[in-house]
Amino acid sequence: NAGVTQTPKFQVLKTGQSMTLQCAQDMNHEYMSWYRQDPGMGLRLIHYSVGAGITDQGEVPNGYNVSRSTTEDFPLRLLSAAPSQTSVYFCASSPDRFSGNTIYFGEGSWLTVV
Amino acid sequence: AQSVTQLDSQVPVFEEAPVELRCNYSSSVSVYLFWYVQYPNQGLQLLLKYLSGSTLVKGINGFEAEFNKSQTSFHLRKPSVHISDTAEYFCAVKDSNYQLIWGAGTKLIIKP
Asked: Is the dihedral of CA B61, A92, A99, B103 positive or negative?
């Protein structure tokens, strides 16, 4: 049972480039989400999904796209990278959005945009 | 808007000393309360959570937290810290709209 797997772990992008952060979970969780973590700001929700085919915006969605074609996968796409998107990104999953169930996090992806 | 305040950005403490990491939230109707820990260069993992029942919650690694509804607080405590407790600790609250709100984190620094 691998839990939540994120790739890549480290990435350097040039301004204007696009890329996709991959996220997969093997726990059959319906709820998946992407956060960014910046110093002194905690976690901020980018996008989330309550099930395959359903996605919605979080607190800071601008510049990012997501899709959820399967229960397992929830990729995050940066359309045209900007230095302000330099951050650590975490994918997370839980059985559902509503209960007090534990949220499981990936190991993180460190992204630098130059 | 709902908010979660972790009152200290860093807490230095000597090894084997007790520690308290403070967390206050603004919601008058909290649903669930969580503490997560993030070790260096890793993802977050659950330390403990309060869903209902006893206001004193025990978690992993000897940590415990107390839910205080009147003071809207959920402070995290450990009676004796070890060097391995060096990490960043995040408080989170799920409110009545099931929105999960995160604090900014507290770095626990253990001094030998």
From this structure: positive
**Rounded Cα gap, residues A58 and A76, in angstroms:** 13
* A100/B31 Cβ within 8 A: yes
Contacts of A43 in chain B (CB under 8 A): 44, 90, 102
* The length of chain B, given as a count of residues: 112
> Looking at residues A27-31, what average pLDDT do you find?
95
Q: Regarding predicted confidence, which is higher, A14 or A42?
A: A14
Q: Give dist(CA B62, CA B49) in Å, integer.
A: 14
3-state secondary structure A61-109: CCCEEECCCCCCECCEEECCCCHHHCEEEEEEEECCCCCCCCCEECCCE
Question: Do you find a cis peptide bond into A8, omega within 30 degrees of 0?
Answer: yes
